[in-house]
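B., you asked whether I could sanity-check this one before it goes into the benchmark set. Here's the sequence:
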Amino acid sequence: MTLQEVKVTQSRIAVLIGKGGKTKREIEKKTGTVLTIDSEEGTVAVEAEETLSVLRTVELVRAVNRGFSPERAYVLLDDEDLILDIIDLSGICTTTKQMDRVRGRIIGKEGRAREQIEYMTGCLISVLGKTIALIGLPEQLKLARTAIDMLVKGVPHEAVFAFLDKRKKEAKHEILEYYY
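And here's what the prediction gave me:
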């Protein structure tokens, strides 16, 4: 039996449990694990026979804790090559105003910048508090991180999207060259 504990933000405990415990039961069913959630302490204990099930479920819980809906976080269970990557902005942003500005640049007007980066990189992105969480394959994560770094440094959105578009075309070209 393998057991691992994860600390979860108070505001995300309810999301993990779901209405009447529905989400918790769904996670347990999909992963073959048992979740013990301590709402007071903000901890989630994940227990199962298989170590891999525990590790994947811990990643799922971490993803939900970083702002992903359980439905979006479930992709981590579908493909073992997917990785959860968390960027901490607290070292970059020194004031609340700066943090808000950086988050706003990454999210964009009505969430369009975030959606565009997701579409162009194939990553899922969640912006919550002082972090940006990404779910994707290693190459996708590298590209999304570069785009986010560019936005954090103040590069205009158009330039970031042009960069992503160029990289997407290069990748497509490399695939075509490989097969022909």
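One thing to flag: The chain has two domains: 2-78, 83-179. Otherwise nothing jumped out at me.
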